[in-house]
Amino acid sequence: MDGTQNCDVVIVGGGPCGLTLAIELGRRGISTILLEERTDPSRFPSANATQARTMEHYRRLGFAEKIRAEGLPPDYPTDIAYFTRYTKHELARFSLPSARAARDMVKTLSGSWSAAELPHRVSQIFVEGVLRAEAAACPTVSLRPGWRMTAIRDSGKGVEVDAESRDNGQRLTLHAAYAVAADGGGSPTRKMLGINYTGESGVVRDFMGGRMFAIHFRSPELYNVLPHPRAWMYWAVNRERRAFMAAVNGRDEFTFHTQIKPGVRSEDISDTQAIAMLHEAFAAPLNIEIIGRSTWNAGYTLVAEKFQRGRILLGGDAVHLFTPTGGLGYNTAVEDAVNLGWKLSAVLKGWGGDSLLDSYETERQMIARRNTAYARGFADSVGLFALPPELEEASSAGEAARKVTGDHFNHHARFEFNIPGITFGGRYDGSPVIVPDGTVPPPDSPNAYVPTACPGGRAPHLWLDDGRSLYDALGFEFTLLVLDGTSTGADQFQAAADALKIPLSVEPVAAEGARDLYGADLALVRPDQIVAWRGNTSADATSVLRRATGRP
Ligand SMILES: Cc1cc2nc3c(=O)[nH]c(=O)nc-3n(C[C@H](O)[C@H](O)[C@H](O)COP(=O)(O)OP(=O)(O)OC[C@H]3O[C@@H](n4cnc5c(N)ncnc54)[C@H](O)[C@@H]3O)c2cc1C
Fold this sequence. Notes:
Distance between the termini: 46 Å
Strand order of the largest sheet: 6-5-15-16-17-14-18
Shape: globular
Bound molecules: flavin-adenine dinucleotide
């Protein structure tokens, strides 16, 4: 039976990008239908790292604690450790806090790590479970698992999306104001629209550049076989079998990823051969049960030439593909959804102007280019380091080789896994909906973040006198921070916002140092916690608000 349905927004794809967007829209009461072709949500654990900025967004949406409770047990360390083989020499280690310690530690940090949340190491399968439940709980969101988008059309006045049920072949045409394609790296929407990726693919490296083969496995005995302290991620560094392995539940589930030689087809790898690869990395036998297998390509640095065509917008892997070094693909996908969610809602509700949606591509494409370039640099650092031939020898030459290699990976681990600059330092300079103030932001750097309220970047974080995070005090849409100890200027902003029907909260911030941190008496913070404007007078409140919301 064929049929039609109406809604405001159709989302194609129920991965992290599509689900986060559904939550952003659902929380704002926008009627949304999400099509996801898979019926079975359980998938191979791919992403392992939720960056601090993503956790801050989950906190804004009210479920950061649910995410932090998932994955590894609360006291499990999240170290990254490098070994020749897992039961042989430990070469390097970067110790990082457990989930429980991170929750307390964040309140004591300043400078680069001045944040409401620290990163959380958790498999994507657990994250998606929480996102799915949060999206399903929004009354205006309808999740449609088992429904595949088959065609998408933009009539200029709206979109039509054809969908087909994988259960019974039933067909449906959805009519909406906008469609968002969050349909992954193979994005059928991007292909239908004829939008290409630009950048690099097929980069070859000794590791993290080529075809990768992965297994998700169960082994209750693994921790007894390992002679080293526990870690979250284990790297095997030798000339025969390079690999990385992530702890999934801290008890008995792991993922193991290794590069396969050119010419080897992953479908030809038997389970016995897969287990043999694992044994090479362990240099020891290990009883395992394979739960799932997967293949993926390392060596992508790709960004789509367009993120929007008319009323169809694209986000996540559909418009950027990473080598997963740095753990940035899913996190960038979530931030796309955060950026797009409030803008779509504002346009649909009438307080966002025409150019607000155009700013999505301007802002997110520059971040996609930046983040994929950082991931590429990490892949070069890990994959182009030439391993000395003596690395595994029981000799003084072997010891020297292990020292050199350990030094490299001790440095590399901090380069790749301590990235507040990447996480917090992404900026939207040059965006038409940011009001520049003539100041120059600090230089972009992966491992250091200098808090700045220079418009276009994340609102600097601070802990308020009552112990709350500043972010917990922000409104859900725009917030005017009043930092000069009086409410001068707030009234004019509030009146201008009321006249323009822009939802605005006014938040006086009396905490010591807040005025210096922001460098102004007033700061206008967007719904995605980006500073849109700062200044000392509210004389131009109307023009500031018009510009920040894309209105003429
Ligand atoms: C081994 C590995 C490790 C990784 N580690 C990290 C990490 O630590 N940190 C990180 O940030 N990222 C990591 N990533 C990347 C991360 O997994 C992706 O960037 C992320 O899944 C992208 O999310 P998405 O929502 O854009 O796309 P996807 O997760 O691919 O979701 C797209 C969805 O669209 C659906 N779909 C496609 N076509 C249709 C259609 N026609 N109709 C309906 N539905 C459709 C698909 O079924 C799919 O569910 C890793 C990736 C790999 C392979």
